[in-house]
Amino acid sequence: MANINLLPWREEAREQKKRDYYLALVLTSLVGFLIVYLTIMVVDGQINEQNARNQYLKDEIVLLDKQIKEIREIREKKKDIERRTDIILNLQEARNLPTHVLDELVRIVPPGVYISNLEKKGSLIWIEGRSESNNNVSNMMRKVKASQWMHDPSMKSIFSQQDEVRKMQSFSLRVAIDDQSELEETAQAQGGVR
């Protein structure tokens, strides 16, 4: 006997294709969602890793900024100390200047010249006095020009004045003084000897 299949095989084939289609659709969707999820997780992990690196760099930058600030403060303190040291050194060098000037004054004042007033204003000395002759004053001015500590003599006034005993010349002289420490530094810079 022959077997005859009276079942609707076409409908079953259609139903099987539909089930296979839906299964493939569900599997494809699941694989797609899985790929998207894994991609999101990988990207999120990279973002977190980059954020961690960024935070580390920010922390290091904060530390470096703090160190830079400390270095600036140290440099400011160093400049302040150097400025104070320079002031102290200048004061120490300047304290001997009056002694040197008075010592030099003893050498340049010739016999017959009498100083009555000596006044220092800045880097100038005003000398007032009397002289037995104009030649003595001229001689003193020549010695000032050759002096190590004084220079640029300028006569402000000279006039005759009759004293009880003799005739004297009253004079007023302006002299510039040198800060020898500057001269010594210049000589050292040019390779000179102290």
TrEMBL record:
Q: What is the lineage of its organism?
A: Bacteria, Pseudomonadati, Pseudomonadota, Gammaproteobacteria, Alteromonadales
Q: One Pfam family from the UniProt entry?
A: PilN
Q: Provide the leader sequence positions.
A: none
Q: Where are the transmembrane segments?
A: 21-43
Q: What keywords does the record list, in alphabetical order?
A: Membrane, Transmembrane, Transmembrane helix
InterPro entries, per the entry = Extracell_DNA_Util/SecSys_Comp (IPR052534), PilN (IPR007813)
BP terms from Gene Ontology: type IV pilus assembly; type IV pilus-dependent motility
User: Do you know which PANTHER family this protein is assigned to?
Assistant: DNA UTILIZATION PROTEIN HOFN, TYPE IV PILUS INNER MEMBRANE COMPONENT PILN
Designated name of the protein: Fimbrial protein
Determine the domain of life of the protein's source: Bacteria
